Hints:
This protein is mainly beta. 4% of the residues lie in helices and 39% in strands. It is built from five helices and 92 strands. The strands form 24 sheets. Strands 1, 2, 3, 5, 28, 33 and 34 form a seven-stranded antiparallel beta sheet that branches. Strand 2 (24-29) and strand 3 (37-42) form a beta hairpin. The longest helix has 17 residues, at 1258-1274. The chain is extended and about 170 Å long.
Amino acid sequence: MSTKRVLYGLVGLYMIISICQSSYFLARRDWPFYKHIYFCVTNSSSALSWIEENITEKLDYVSKYIPEQPNGEMNYDIRDDENTRTDFIKHPWRLQTSMQSNFNHLIFDERWEAMNVIKTEYVEISFDKLLYQHFQNIVLKKESFDIPLSIRIENEGHIFLCDGEYPPKSRCYWFMLQAFSGMGSAIRKCEKGYIPSEDGNLPQTPCNEQRVYKNHTIVPTYLSNKMWSHFVLSKHKHVLRFSQFSDQEEKLIMEWEDFDIPIDVTHIIVHSKGNNGLWKIHNLDFLYADAASSDVNLGPPIPSADTFVCISMYVTMCPFCKLVLSLEDGQHVLKTEEFELKHAGWDQIKIMTEKANTSDAIKLLVTTKSSDPKPYWAIDKVRLCRKKEFRMLELSKRVSCQLISDSEQVTDVKGQSQPNLNSKCPEDAIGEFCVPCLWLPTNCKYFKVCNERKCVCSTGYFGRDCHQPCARKTYGHECQKQCTNCNYDCDKATGTCRYGCLENYSGKKCDIPPAIFANPPEIIEISYTQATVRVSNFQLENSVSYPTPQHYTVQYKTADVSDINWRNVSDQNHEFNSTGNFKILNLTLGTEYLVRSVIMGPNGEWNINHHLKVNNFATRCDEISEDDINIETSKTTARIYLSEGTTLTCKSYSITLDEKGADFSNRSGTFFTNLLPYKSYMVRVRGIQKTYEKKFTTDEAAPTFVLSLTGTAASATTVVLKWAEPLSINGVFNHYVVQYQHVSYRGCNFSSVESSTKSRRETENTSVTITELIPYSTYEFTVFVLNAKFSGPPVSQRTTTPYCHTIQPEETPNIVGINTTHESIILSVLKCENIRGPLTVEVKITCISEWCKNRIDIKTLPKTGIIEVINLQSFSEYDLEVQLCRVNGSCSVPQKKKFETKTTVSKSVSNLLVYTKNASSVSLRWKPPYPPTGVLKNYKINCTSYRKEVVEETQIRRCKLWPELHCATLNGLPPNAYLTIKVYARNEAVEDYSPPREIQTYAKTEKSKPPYDLMLNWTTKNDMQVVWKHPNETNGEVSYFGIQVIDLTLVQNEIIDEQKLNVSRETYDLTYNYLFDGSLLSPTTEYKVAIYAFNGEDGDSAQEMTTSPLDVPKLSDDPEFVISNGLLKILVLPNKVRGSTHTYQLLVLRSDKQSNLELYPSLQEHELKNLKVIVECDLSQISETLEIYVGSLQQHPRCKGKDNSSLKPETTGNITIVLQNFFENDCRTTIYTYNPMEKLKRVVVNPNYYWPPVLLILGLVVIFFGLTIRRGRLGAANLARPTWRETFWRKANLAQGHFGASHLGADHLGANELAPRKIDIIIQKLYPLLA
């Protein structure tokens, strides 16, 4: 990119892609006695804009091209009109807008000027209707979009993206730009009716919630009323972004992702607060194609007016796309050029040819090529262009001009000295890029040309307002050129000589000199009164366009500058090229003369000018002798004079002393002053024929000062002084004197010169070493030289000794004093005279009071031993630690102390509100001042109404419901009065009260504010527990809380239950709760609970929505089990679940160390160990009793066995039945665990708990031992075939909780095993109990 220069007015430079070179300037036409006319001109394709700091009008002017294009030349802005449809809409090219396309770039070129401008105005009338400005031509129809826009506003700019045209009646995203007096920016989301329609009103909750907030520490940040700024506002699905584009870089300002229901944005509306604003959305029409094509004729035929044809257009295309332009005259291809863009965005391209030597019309053919999978091309503003052209804005008003592409601007600044602004241009052009004056009004007369730095006048003028023509004999840019050969003067712009030329010069500017001899006449012979000269060399100067001379003559005169009369040697003219000797007679002896040759011009005039070549000679005279010359000297002067009686036959002698010259015209002699003392000189006395030289020496004087005095520190206590010899000793050298004195300690801010003494050293050398100095101090060293008679002037140099690298003993900090104020302390830690190096004082102050657990770390380089620490918290206790350190890390031992800051005036109370009131009293609540600035003593309450003023001092009283707050009640107030209440706080030991905290209210009962912190919880029994807190503002005495339960699944959102919780002043509590019976509520149902306080009228309600949990799965009755043929059969009847369900299942588990519970994630949270799922049943369509078999894979059709192997003899363990109800991401589980021989235990488990069954086996153990004894008495001979019960008891070990699982058949029993009838009866009676 070329160097960017900004010129406010007129500029020009030919460019193909000119947006990269942004040059422009301003010219002001300033005719005397007429109004100013301003011109802003650019050679680039960038847009221009007038800028008025106070935005009162739009100033949306469109620039025009200069030189102006003839009427009828092709110049098409692509838009939806007849010309575009006829000449440009050709397959595959079609018309499209920025908002419709899949790209929407920022536009900074000239098309920006024609975009629609919306002005937002702020009316300062309170509660007037807010002025919302709607972009009528912008309709957003896509879920995702980018909106490029330009803004000019000081601050408080507001953008609304809405689903309607009027924000107060629409859902909107609200972008607040440099809001809150410019201190911050934010994004809000507002529902319909929440945005205010009148000034002075605030948005309602939750519209006032700032979803994103960005704090601005420096104002302004990105908006300005002094220039246009450019942004992109985008919405991509749920993500909103607002970014600024400056210097071709993107700067993100705000971003927010809307996770809630997004707004279907269709309109963009703007508004300004506190100031006026200007807004532009970058939206335009253009030609668009998304398919490759070949030789499409775009535009009308181009008439061939001359041999040069140039067509300009703006294009954009995909990264791998190309655009080929061709110019044809019907018979020949005049020019073909291929274009591709290296970056996103629009560029200006031009195709031109100088081969159009035809009478046929020329066609523009467009070809598109691409390797991109999603190609696109766009074309806009097709026009005929010039080789050299500019664009210009014109305005009769003093404003600034901004170049939109660079955000630069210039104005009509004062002053004019700006070199090189016009200097490289001819006189008939102005500006850095030489805009021809013929293209500008009045041919640049009285123009003032400005860039962003300074201004200059147009050619031929100067002065602050460029009213004054150039001075006499000057012309051109900045009046820098001379017209010296003109008679009287020249034209101030062009330099043309209006009244003829001087000295035979010729040409319009009299800049062609006449022909002259290249060499002067030769001197042949000189005597006392005559001389002979010769003309033999006839070579000429300036003879290129000069005719051959015919005659010449020889002229002479004395060398005296006062003699201006040249005399001819003879009266005859001599033929040119004829050599001649010329004798000059009647000369004065001892006199110098000049002689020259002069040519006669073609018109008989002599070519005489100041460039003629001359020679000089002097006539002879009698000389003086060397002995006649005398010299008299002093320190700095010398007098050269002649001895008395000396006769001068020659008129003058020249006397030279160095470069000083004189003569003997004064008989007292010649004086030479300002000579150097004690220096030898040579004087030369030159006569007509002889020169004499004499030497002399001036007298001795004081030496000059020594040179280059420097002091270099060799160590902390040593300085080496060096200097150079004086320019002149002015006598015989003696020695140098060195004096030195302590000036100051670097650790102090005062000088020690007055209290210190000077020390003295003498030396013959130009250096000396001074030792035993104080470290880290400043010394003044003085050096002067002495010769045999005089001492020279002193030269002083101040030098600082280095510091000690380690902390010295005298530098140990000593907190000698702490001056404590209310919010600051002053520490005295060290005497500055003891500082021996740069110290960092590290102060650590830690507040140990509970309200200010903060720490202040200060590192400072002390200029004194005093340190002040401010911004401390009053009425607080602090720990202080002070340590001194060198820059190299060496530190002293820390010193520690404690201190307390003093009590100050109390801070204001906060969170002041009226929590209840009636017709004659008001109860207040507030938060005590925090952090405390002292011990709180009391409060003062000032209550003012239109009838009277009440002032009460009240002691500290904590609130019953809010113990951390303080409360007070004002009684006996005027009924229904409008009250202004101020609360002041006062600390002990302080007379003044705090600044007040103010609130306004009416002395009357009003409806209560809603309760807060409403929470809804569900118990394990599906009961709903409602918890809320007492309203902050009841505005009256509450008698009960109304609690409503609303079923949101019903069409009318009916209230299915409403309860009252009675309260009184004595039973008020901060937190309340109420329990709704879950059996009255439906599972998986969406409810809304509303709670309000009743104080004579229903208050505002707090509302919360919830969804009831899943129904708890249960068994209708205890399951039955039967052991038959080696299988355990379980009869189960589950209840049908209420509400929504996705999966309703039953699982049967038995003891097994090889568990498979990892396959069931919903059981992981329950403490089920060493269990395996053996049966899984789908209960979604089962309403009858299920038969489930343990030890078999054959199951009910809705069940399936999973590794349900046969039971082996002596198998032990429990059986667990699990019921699970699933819906969405929730699960409700009930677990039953039992032993077949014991009473069934049922456990209802919520998702977090499991209760294992309790096995009651004590009774079984007693029965077992009783039966064993009985069987021993009966004897083996009396046994019959056993019943299945006897066999079961033989196999079962009840004491250990085992159950038999073997095959019970005759093949395993003896023939004589028959149980007595009594045992059978006992078992028959006990078995139902065991079962």
